Amino acid sequence: MIPAMAQLVGTVQGNCNIADARHARDVTLCTYLLGMREFYRWEHDIPYGVAPPRTEVGRWISEREALWEEIADHEFATLSIAGREFDPFDAPAINGALSGSGLVYGGGIGRFGKPHFFLARLAREERRGGAHLLICDCEYARDIAAMPAALQNDTIVVRREALRQWLWEKAEGWSVKRQEGTLKWALDAYAFDTDPARAIELMTDAETETLALHEEGEYRAGTLLGPEWGVMLAGFDRKRPELLARAVRDNLADCLITLPTLIERQAWPSLQLWFAGFDGMRRELFPALVAEAEKVGAGGTAPGLRDLVARGQDHWLKVARRLLQLDQTEVEQLSHRTETIAL
To answer: Same structural domain for residues 138 and 216?
Structure first.
């Protein structure tokens, strides 16, 4: 920890609040209310499995929305560390100043231009494929949309608290309908029905590695695509082109690192959980992988999966490089006829 820790936490949380004031409601009502419930859980340290009090959550949401109305136009505050002032988006410099403190800071722009910030305790660090991997535990400040992992330049950050929340939401959602499929098989592998709390902790341990693998894949993809990719993303001002570009790169990253590694390790519960979260544009672009996932089954093994993933490496790299040659309008048009680039 560092001197003036409380002040630093307060500043980061203040910036999180400003970001939420501007963007927290840029989602469907259902997603917003679920996110606010889980944010309330985090802020009030309520264990998973214990339902937050509905009346109190409703009152808290009203109070938080009133705060947002007051601060939405505020500027993001600089961070003061050891007598120096830092731009809140300069995460590399801030983490350099925090070196040795046991803290990790995150600050950047996520999907659709939304700023994200957090401050957490460092659990461990290591090198991964040329990137610097930071694993975070307890979070001291965060916004409502806590991303479980991110790549910042050459630094991979995995947030175990955010991952644990995502896993609980997936398991809780499954518990309502209890459908057969990859999510059930993954939960069964961890005996979720017998001991949910222990299962979530075991899954958090395992999926921390899966997230690290994905971000390592993102780093590898970045070396193949070059800085032009970031310039392209920053130039999008409409959602569809950005969704398509991010989905293509996600598929490339997973074919490069995540899936080959999990297959090699025969980490079937992690693969099943990965398939359970394979949705949206990524899934629409990769129907062959969806079909192969259905063959995995509860006991693992998928004879054609390894070859399909190898084909995916070349395919998604070619598609990503094609996107770099198009303007935003052309990328948006392509997003409406994804069958022409699907695998």
So the answer is: no
